[in-house]
């Protein structure tokens, strides 16, 4: 039986990964460590509270003693690190916490992996570490790192730490770099759930600049299956780009959401662009497709309908996560733009 420590397992991608593992891999035990900051939510794990193969622990990945205790107590063999501060806008206004979690936290996990001689460390990273593209081309695993925001700089720093621990200490690692995820349980500070939430409440939909920033969209379940492939089949030291092969302009995504919800495009409000906003990302996922026999199973046209319908069916979840200080914080980001 594989025994995994999954960090950030109450967040968006982490909780989807945990749910997939518990549903599809009966020979896998998961210790789920999450600090439960604003984007971590135990409601994301509803239905798995009493699963015999799942243990939730509230805690911080920077707490070295806690990490060591978990590894010893549950005989952990591998770590999958989802834990991260991930919102670019927040990294611009509050960069320090991104360094603390994304860099120092990863270092703490790597030291435990080395000291306890764990089987594998999988670092969940992002295509944003590569910087921006022009109108053509795609990021490959050999593209130089060129981060343009405090968030992406913190993730690139963590990736380099992982590589260094592999080279210097023999830590068996893999790094995955994904494109923009979407799907159930995503906190509504990110584009798709933010637009869904605002549209449902007939609020303005803030779109940065002209809205022609292009992203490759990856349905979160497909991302999770790719990570499982890496965890179970990848050779040590390999890096894999994971993309959905779905390039879309932000403004087109917003219009599609409005159309699906029957809301007018007059709700769109173009606001001053974000500082240092990368214009285009595109992922070349041919390595994981060819070497690990993985490919995305959900097209964007299918995935966006599934996603919108999930939020419509889970409006209580949505209302709960946007209540309180979060909504005031996010609305304040746009009031002068």
- Total individual domains: 2
Shape: globular
- H-E string: EHEEHEHHEHEEHEEHEEHEHHHH
CATH topology label of the largest domain: Rossmann fold
What proportion of the residues is helical, as a percent range?
40-55%
Question: Biggest β-sheet: count, sense, barrel?
Answer: 7 strands, parallel
Q: What structural category do the secondary elements indicate?
A: alpha/beta
Count of individual beta strands: 12
Low-confidence stretches: none
The strand order across the widest sheet is 3-2-1-4-5-6-10
Radius of gyration: 19 Å
What is the correct CATH architecture of the largest domain? 3-Layer(aba) Sandwich
Report the CATH superfamily of the largest domain: NAD(P)-binding Rossmann-like Domain
Beta-strand percent range: 15-25%
Cα end-to-end separation: 52 Å
Structure description:
This protein has helices spanning 12-24, 64-74, 88-93, 95-115, 150-169, 191-200, 220-233, 250-261, 286-291, 300-313, 315-322, 325-334, and strands at 2-7, 28-34, 54-58, 78-81, 120-126, 173-178, 180-182, 205-208, 214-219, 239-242, 247-249, 268-271. The radius of gyration is 19 Å and the shape is globular. Helix content is 43%, strand content 18%. It is built from twelve helices and twelve strands. The model has no long low-confidence stretch (mean pLDDT 94). The chain is of the alpha/beta class and 337 residues long. It starts with a strand and ends with a helix. It has two domains: 2-181 and 218-242, Rossmann fold, CATH 3.40.50.720; 191-215 and 246-282 and 299-331, Alpha-Beta Complex (UDP-galactose 4-epimerase, domain 1), CATH 3.90.25.10. Helix 4 (95-115) packs parallel to helix 5. Strands 3-2-1-4-5-6-10 form a seven-stranded parallel β-sheet, with helices on both faces. It has a three-stranded mixed β-sheet with strand order 7-9-11. The chain has a two-stranded parallel sheet with strand order 8-12.
């Amino acid at each position: 039986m594989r025994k995994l420590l999954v960090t950030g397992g109450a967040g968006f991608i982490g909780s989807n990964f945990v749910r997939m593992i518990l549903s599809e891999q009966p020979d896998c035990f998961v210790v789920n460590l999450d600090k439960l900051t604003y984007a971590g939510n135990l409601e994301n794990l509803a239905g798995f509270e009493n699963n015999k193969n799942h243990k939730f622990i509230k805690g911080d990945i920077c707490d070295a003693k806690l990490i060591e205790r978990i590894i010893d107590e549950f005989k952990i063999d591998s770590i999958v690190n989802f834990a991260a501060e991930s919102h670019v806008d927040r990294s611009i206004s509050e960069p320090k916490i991104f360094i603390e979690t994304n860099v120092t936290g990863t270092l703490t996990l790597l030291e435990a992996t080395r000291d306890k001689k764990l089987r594998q460390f999988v670092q969940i990273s992002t295509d944003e570490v590569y910087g921006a593209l022009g109108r053509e081309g795609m990021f490959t695993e050999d593209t130089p790192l060129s981060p343009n925001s405090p968030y992406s700089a913190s993730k690139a720093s963590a990736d380099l730490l992982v590589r260094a621990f592999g080279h210097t200490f023999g830590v068996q690692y893999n790094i995955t770099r994904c494109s923009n995820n979407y799907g159930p349980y995503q906190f509504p500070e990110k584009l798709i759930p933010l637009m869904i939430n605002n549209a449902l409440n007939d609020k303005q939909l803030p779109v940065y600049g002209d809205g022609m920033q292009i992203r490759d969209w990856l349905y979160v379940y497909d991302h999770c299956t790719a990570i499982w492939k890496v965890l179970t089949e990848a050779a040590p030291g390999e890096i894999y780009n994971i993309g959905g092969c779905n390039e879309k302009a932000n403004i087109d995504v917003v219009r599609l959401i409005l159309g699906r919800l029957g809301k007018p495009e007059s709700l769109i409000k173009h606001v001053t662009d974000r500082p240092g906003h990368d214009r285009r990302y595109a992922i070349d996922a041919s390595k994981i497709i060819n070497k690990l026999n993985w490919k995305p199973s959900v097209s964007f046209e299918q995935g966006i309908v599934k996603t919108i319908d999930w939020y419509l069916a889970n409006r209580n979840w949505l209302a709960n996560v946007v209540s309180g200080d979060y909504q005031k914080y996010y609305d304040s980001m746009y009031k002068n733009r």
